[in-house]
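Prompt: May I have another protein with tokenized structure?
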Amino acid sequence: MRDLGTALALVLVIEGILYALFPEWMKRVAAQAMQVPAQTLRVAGLIAACGGVVLVWLLRRVAQGVEVNGAGVTSLELERSGAGHGLRLRISVEDERPE
């Protein structure tokens, strides 16, 4: 229950920051959302929710030290690559296999 509360608090923090920094943009997004059919919003919401569940599951597995082919995954980092034109996922691994 503590994790759910933390997640909801982070949603409020992120949404609050967006409204504080970009109020006109948020108003335009809300107005555009009114024009989108309800079924499209449902599908987009379902896809976002499923993606979030998968991401939480992956992050939890990494935090628990998942083993991949005998190697323990110790960290997962997402960083900008190059001049900010993309993202790079870096997975740190400790190889614990006998030689």
Notes: The chain has a mean pLDDT of 80. Helices lie at 2-21, 23-35, 38-63. DSSP finds three helices and three strands in the chain. The radius of gyration is 19 Å.
